[in-house]
């Protein structure tokens, strides 16, 4: 060992973590989180290939891989033009839902908090229903849903931020907003033309049918624009579990930090909902599954995103194949999974509080 090498400071490392160096930059990574991210990525890739294979016609996985590589097969039209856009949209939307759910649940310090529980999805749904039932052009439905989701989020932040986004107040305000917006949506649907009401109902269920690259592009652009903020959020989540006095004692600004994390989460959730409709429970379930796999108080955003992507790809595949040739919207399948899981969370919290 040279004199220069021996003079370098050594890094003992924290238990369960590894230090990764990229030139002058070094990052601590939980080894279990890295394992979970690797395994989930492999499962997601397998789910994508399976989803591209199953259907009419059936395409062998080897032909799917050859088609994706550009080698040229008789199934290029089916794989690359018909199925791939929908599956990529499912993966992108699921990842965004997973990130949004993690941010909102961390701010609220409540596993029950998700965009579809605290009113953001309902705000988007109300605005989309108004746009559909008033005869607005189809291209205006998604922007209207985005505005509705952001408006609901703004109302929620105003109601919840009066006392520093206190956990219980934030969630209760969100539940109240969600019930009010859902009731308004039903009033609008009942007073509209039956055909328009049915179209709005289909949008509210949440489906990926007939959607693809254009919706994926909007979600991907949002993720790219928010990437610096998400990088900050991954670090800032570490301070959300501290009480306000402790956080201020170590130089943090807990109110501003929670507001920034919550705003990022609701913008992301509103954007995704505007593109794919009200696909419920992915944002609720994905962070909790990732947290249990990682065995940490808060899941890394990458793990939550991968779990969310895997859930929505599998839900879309199940919706297409279980009752084929009839196709069920992905939102129906996620609700079938999320409903019992929500009951499990409620029962578990009740037992803990007893």
UniProtKB/TrEMBL annotation:
Question: Which compartment or compartments is the protein found in?
Answer: Cell membrane
Recorded hits in InterPro entries, A to Z, give: ABC_BtuC-like, ABC_transptr_permease_BtuC
Q: Does the keyword Transmembrane apply?
A: yes
Q: Which UniProt keywords apply?
A: Cell membrane, Membrane, Transmembrane, Transmembrane helix, Transport
**Single GO BP term:** siderophore-iron import into cell
Q: Which GO terms describe its molecular function?
A: transmembrane transporter activity
Q: Which interval of the chain is the signal sequence?
A: none
Question: Chief subcellular site?
Answer: membrane
Please give an example of a GO cellular component term from this record: plasma membrane
Superkingdom assignment: Bacteria
Residues that span the membrane, as ranges: 33-54, 84-104, 125-158, 170-192, 213-235, 298-315, 327-347
Give the bilayer topology: Multi-pass membrane protein
PANTHER family per record: FERRIC ENTEROBACTIN TRANSPORT SYSTEM PERMEASE PROTEIN, FERRIC ENTEROBACTIN TRANSPORT SYSTEM PERMEASE PROTEIN FEPG
Record-stated family: Belongs to the binding-protein-dependent transport system permease family. FecCD subfamily.
**Protein name per UniProt:** Iron complex transport system permease protein
